[in-house]
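Protocol step 4 of 6: structure prediction from sequence.
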Amino acid sequence: MSRSPDWRPDRITVGRVGRPHGLDGSVHLTGHGGVVPLPPGTAVEVGGRPGTIAASKGTAERPLVRFDLASTREEADALRGLEVTVDSALLPEADEDEFFHVDLIGCEVVEAGARLGEVTDVLEYPANDLLEVRSEEGTRLVPFVDEVVERVDVAARRIELRPGVL
């Protein structure tokens, strides 16, 4: 397991408990993008309660999991909507020109040397992601696309926008 960068929180969200599937306590995991593998034995927290994944099936993007916290459909339904987190060290290394949302949050955003604010969230939309950039003047949404973003330096915690695009 690799050590997480200093800017990452200790735990990252991998999804939320969705509706039950079957009678054995299995659930759909919603909002999981498949980046962090979730094989049986993976330590998790469900709504802040420690547990492990007892079984996993489905696809990486649409997993069906059973936590050791639920063995019936009713127990699984009681977990519905709770956030599922894992140790951030489970996040794999990003490919070149690939960025994890958790790594973009907290980055300073600049355009032509002028500070526009800090990324407070990354919103997922079908066409492209949007950076929520907050400053003293308010909040603005910035498309996270090549036409707008000139350079991302996660280690330096800085995102540079192309001059004149906003």
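Step 5 (inspection) to follow. The chain has a mean pLDDT of 91.
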